[in-house]
Structure formats: structure tokens, C-alpha cells
Amino acid sequence: MERDTVLTATPTIDADLADATSCATPSRTAVSPLLPVLAALAAVVLWGGAFPAMKVAVQTLGTWQMMWARMVFALLLLVPLARRLAPARIERRDLPLLAGMALMQPCLYFLCESTALQLTTSSQAGVMAASMPLMMAVGGFLLGEKVSPRLWFGVGVSCIGVAWLTSSGGEGGGSAPDPFTGNLLELAAMACATGSSLCIGALISRGKGRWNALTLTGIQTLAGAVFFLPGAPGVIGGVADWSTEVLLAVVYLGGASSLGAFGLYNWALGHMPASRAGNFINLVPVAAIFFGWLLLGETLTTTQYLATGLVMGGVLMGTRAR
């Protein structure tokens, strides 16, 4: 199918991103209000399961090999849908948002997260994901959205909880040799995810049907496969020696987490404001702690549970203020 490339004047990116945080998004296709909610919830569950799966895979393969294998498997699943991935046209003003979306997520996001999971537990990394809704709120504020004092108070409480959890990670050892650094890297990953989500919301809300969840997920997956290409030789030369556990982890990460979760969440972003979609990330720590306990036998100390409660309390306080 031949595609037309339309070159137009480039408005400010801030204005485009501000549209993504607004509730007035007439270009979004009308669907049942329940469907975006269910899509976001399903994405959260899949992401929660990804933390222990990444922990298993990255400890055996390392960051670059694990991520390239994950991205390539997801690309293979997209091959039958290749004809549906191409946008009707690309406008010049889309290019900075597309580049920002792909660079922040999956490239920098997974680089930070996979490294973090070599240093901390999947449960603690999952708790760090609770910071994303508040980062979305701060992003909206920087783009001109009004933010209430209660939200700022929630941000402060959550930050205290994150600092407490990070400092109470212990001296390290076993599968979590440096939880302090690992938790900080997971926070950096959440910042990348926030920026990418704002870019996606802007693209879908102003695209008038040109951009959809499948297309954007395909772009992200292709960008990830290229970015993590240095890991290809290790995968090609060593895949025959992978254990069943590692193979299943990569299949889950590439199919359910990368393709399934990102596709569902991107679709939800197309049918609700980015700030509202970000609220569902509140449930990622719950899913991550549950799957970490179920699959890896991880537990938190009493102090860490208290710190986790403080993080979640601040998040809930802040998001309710929205």
C-alpha cells in the first residue's frame, strides 16, 4: 500500500503533549467506557507478571541479550499484522513525538529496568512503578494543567515512601546485590514511561485516526529490536543452551508483556486521558509483589511493607485529587 507523507508546519511539542493530558479529546473514537478500563487493567496484570519473568531472564542472559530476544519475538508475532501497521500518512509534526516515544520506551525504559532487576528484587522494583501516576500528574502541570495542593501533598508523601523503601532495601545480597541503586534505576524507568505515555496520548488524540495502538506498538517494538541489537550475537549463539525456565520467560516477555500489555495500554491511552490511564499503574506494585511471592518466593520486611503503604497512600491521595 502506497503511503503519502504530508509535511506541515510544526507546532510546539508542549502544546501537543498538553492535549494528551486534557479530558477533551473529541478525536478519540467513542467506545464503551468499560473497555478502556478493562484494557488498562489487563495491561497492569501482564506488567506485574513481567517483573519476576525479567528477573529470571536477565540473571541468565544479561540485559542486552534478554531485551533483543524479547523484542525480536514480539516482532515475529507482529508479522501477520504487518499490513495493518502502516499509518495512512506521517506529518512532520509527528516525528519528534514518535522519536521521543520510541527512545523513552522501550529503549531507555527497558535499559534502566532490566539493569535495575539485576540489583534489586522484582517486588521492590514493582513498588517503584507506583511513582508513574504522580509523574504523569507533574508532567501535566509542566504542560499547563492545574494541579491542586492535595495532589502536591500526595506527591510529597509518595516521595518519602519511595525514599524510605529505597533506603530500607538492606545491604544487598543474593538476587538483590544493590537494592538502593536498583530502585533508583527503576524510578528512572518510570520517568521514561511517563514521557512516552504523554507522547502516545498526543499522537492518538490529534491523529484523527492516523495513529492507533497497534501501529505505535509496532514502532516501539521495532525501535527496541534495533536499539538492543548488540545482544543479537549472544542470543543466536546461545539460544540452544537456554533452560526451559528462561525460554518461557522470554516468550512471556515478548508476547504477553511487550506486545500484549503495551498494545492494550496504548489502546486505552487512545480512549482516555493519559493522566487517567496513568492511575491504573497504581496496581502494578500489587501485581508485582503477588507474582514475586508466587513465582520467586520473594517477601518484603515489615519496614518495607510500611514504606510500600506510604507510597501507595501518597499515590492514592494524589490521584484522587485529580
UniProtKB/TrEMBL annotation:
Main localisation: membrane
Keyword Membrane: yes
Keywords annotated in UniProt: Membrane, Transmembrane, Transmembrane helix
Transmembrane segments: 34-54, 66-83, 95-111, 123-144, 151-167, 187-204, 216-240, 246-265, 277-296, 302-319
Protein location: Membrane
EamA domain boundaries: 36-166, 201-317
Gene3D superfamilies: 1.10.3730.20
SUPFAM superfamilies xrefs: Multidrug resistance efflux transporter EmrE (SSF103481)
Domain of life: Bacteria
Entry GO CC: membrane
Matching InterPro entries: AA-Vitamin_Transporters, EamA_dom, EmrE-like
Membrane topology term: Multi-pass membrane protein
Record family assignment: Belongs to the EamA transporter family.
Protein name: Membrane protein, putative
